[in-house]
């Protein structure tokens, strides 16, 4: 039994209960049972537009009450934190209103659908922080133990001067042209396609690991399938096609080159058409003293090449990142048992709750989310200008 259960409550409200809502619910439920937290998350209210559906989801996901209007959530005195798990077109409105109402905010990635919204959110977050109200953007892959070890090796200088960053995020869930429309394929709802949905992750991850930021990009975007069947039920994510077709208004794939602030050259690929790749995040970083390589499809392993090794014994070593001394691992299982996709969300809750209790600003901050948004915007501007090299303004 952890000590959390005797600590003051942190009353949480979750807005949205689809894939991300389910992953966040699991994290809010699980964190206090594996980590000693300074505050005890209480799953107080789940908000969704349809009363019957949100009532069913609340029972399944473990929430004590429901609301059908997120604005009502902000009026409740029994809500301390709002967790935004809605499509990107509502992130800014909900997060800014919640911060102004004095609620801490966790907002799913990408932070917003465009730079203007992200700037307004970062501004509201800075003002709220001055009043002790905290905010975080949900780049959960930072909290995979192997990613934490990668960042540590770079920070310790084990890779030396970073020369190359190579990152891919490969999925294939819409490679079939008969896969129906969804909100993720609608620019008005999602802001962009593979670029913002999964490209944002590899932009954030590579900046997090290297401690550097992208300063410019040259990009290509493509929409391979421009018309898709409408879903069987309005808003359905069931993947079942209905009558008629809809126009895809976002990118299916983004490919871009970049330069990092420390001088490294980078290549990025984010696609939903890598047939056979389900959720492959692949990162390789080459430095003057060493290299590292990570693949989320083998997420408990980090490959490390130590350039200080004599040539006769040098080679990429396969580090199984499951030792108690590795980031977060000590709270879970003995060495070699491994963690999964959901653990990053639990670690996100742990770090957020710990920062709130310590009256510190958690990371990644909304300012970090804004910087990623500026990279996404530069990619779109470059692609629209025949891949012209496009600088990223701070
Ligand atoms: C895309 O389908 C997606 O759900 C992303 O939106 C998530 O951020 C990623 O973790 C898994 O894939």
UniProtKB/TrEMBL annotation:
The keyword Oxidoreductase applies. It comes from Blastococcus aurantiacus. It comes from the Bacteria. It holds the Pfam family GFO_IDH_MocA_C3. Keywords: Oxidoreductase. Residues 10-130 form the Gfo/Idh/MocA-like oxidoreductase N-terminal domain. The lineage of its organism: Bacteria, Bacillati, Actinomycetota, Actinomycetes, Geodermatophilales. Gene3D superfamilies: Dihydrodipicolinate Reductase, domain 2, NAD(P)-binding Rossmann-like Domain. This is Predicted dehydrogenase. PANTHER family: BCDNA.GH03377. One of its GO terms (molecular function) is nucleotide binding. Residues 150-292 form the GFO/IDH/MocA-like oxidoreductase domain.
């Amino acid at each position: 039994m952890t000590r959390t259960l005797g600590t003051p409550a942190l009353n949480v409200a979750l807005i949205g209960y689809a894939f991300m809502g389910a992953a966040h619910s699991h994290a809010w439920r699980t964190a206090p049972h594996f980590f000693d937290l300074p505050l005890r998350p209480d799953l107080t209210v789940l908000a969704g537009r349809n009363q019957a559906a949100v009532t069913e989801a609340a029972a399944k996901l473990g929430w004590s009450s429901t609301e059908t209007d997120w604005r009502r959530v902000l009026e409740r005195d029994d809500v301390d934190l709002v967790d935004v798990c809605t499509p990107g077109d509502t992130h800014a409105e909900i997060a800014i209103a919640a911060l102004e109402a004095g609620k801490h905010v966790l907002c799913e990635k990408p932070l917003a659908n465009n730079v203007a919204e992200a700037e307004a959110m970062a501004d509201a977050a800075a003002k709220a922080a001055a009043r002790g109200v905290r905010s975080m953007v949900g780049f959960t892959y930072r909290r995979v133990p192997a990613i934490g070890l990668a960042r540590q090796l770079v920070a310790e200088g084990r890779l030396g001067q970073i020369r190359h960053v190579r990152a891919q995020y490969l999925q294939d869930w819409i490679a079939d042209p008969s896969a129906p429309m969804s909100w993720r394929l609608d620019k008005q709802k999602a802001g962009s396609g593979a670029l913002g949905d999964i490209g944002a992750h590899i932009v954030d991850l590579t900046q997090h690991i290297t401690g550097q930021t992208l300063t410019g990009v040259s990009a290509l975007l493509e929409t391979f399938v421009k018309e898709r069947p409408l879903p069987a039920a309005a808003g359905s994510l069931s993947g079942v096609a209905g009558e008629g077709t809809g126009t895809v208004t976002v990118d299916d794939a983004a490919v871009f080159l970049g330069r990092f602030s420390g001088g490294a050259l980078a290549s990025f690929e984010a696609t939903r058409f890598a047939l056979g790749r389900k959720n492959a995040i692949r990162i390789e970083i080459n430095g003057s003293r060493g290299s590292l390589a990570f693949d989320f499809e083998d997420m408990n392993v980090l490959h490390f090449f130590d350039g200080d090794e004599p040539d006769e014994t040098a080679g990429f070593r396969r580090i199984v990142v499951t030792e108690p001394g590795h980031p977060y691992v000590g709270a879970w299982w003995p060495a070699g048992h491994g963690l999964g996709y959901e653990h990053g969300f639990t670690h996100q809750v742990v770090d957020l709750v710990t920062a709130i209790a310590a009256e510190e600003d958690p990371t990644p901050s909304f300012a970090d989310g804004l910087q990623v948004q500026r990279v996404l915007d530069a990619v779109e501007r470059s692609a629209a200008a025949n891949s012209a090299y496009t600088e990223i303004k701070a």
